[in-house]
Design brief:
285 residues; alpha/beta; eight-stranded mixed beta sheet; 9 helices; 8 strands
Length: 285
Amino acid sequence: MRIDLHAHSTASDGTDTPAELVRNAAAAGLDVVALTDHDTVGGYAGARAALPAGLTLVTGAELSCRIDGVSLHMLAYLFDPDEPELARERELVRDDRVPRAQGMVAKLRDLGVPVTWERVAEIAGDGAVGRPHIATALVELGLIASVSDAFTSEWLGQDGRAYVEKHELDPFDAIRLVKAAGGVTVFAHPLAVKRGTCVPESVIGELAAAGLDGIEVDHPEQADHATRARLRGLAADLGLLTTGSSDYHGSRKTCRLGDYTTDPEIYGEIVRRATGAFPVPGAGG
């Protein structure tokens, strides 16, 4: 089985619609794909309706979190999307995305960058607006070569010249809420150092003690052997599951569906632990 547990659609900051995402996942030879848009479940219906035969959909979300001033992302799988407390927190994060993005555009304009809010909103479309949409506008203006180049101190990275904070969950609260909704939590790309400051391993240990299920090890921004070996050793010490995934964003990033995958036994354990929702088998939508 080929299993990719981290992918985004136009419901957040990907360029594939949910329907295109599942069709492209099948074309890439995947057996299982997880839809993990940022702080939203808005793509579920479209993905389910178009799900090809032979492909299984794992519903999820990538939750925005912060601890001690450091941002981190928590992948949540197979939770009940209608559980009210978790739904309320996702809404708070989404509601803060527009003023935050507008604030970053204003900072860029103060720096002399001719980016406009209207263009950023057009790029985002119906998705949850975020930094990748602003980064795309910077690429269009010829200021950077790729979306990833925006996530630095020069531009939109943590403590970058145009960075603006947003409402984010405490990761301990995120674990508690996802568990209460029957879901499973995996710390996304914990050592993706190019994104900015990473949380120390001691905090990962505290999160594990609080019920964190796993950490994402095989990821495009953790591609070197030493980093992955370090994470596998940490996971073994803490009793955490280890996952692999592409963090696919369509044409917005260079990674492809299935570039990194999760071991079938790990996937089976995630499914076994979940009680809020179940994987959806494709019926040829």
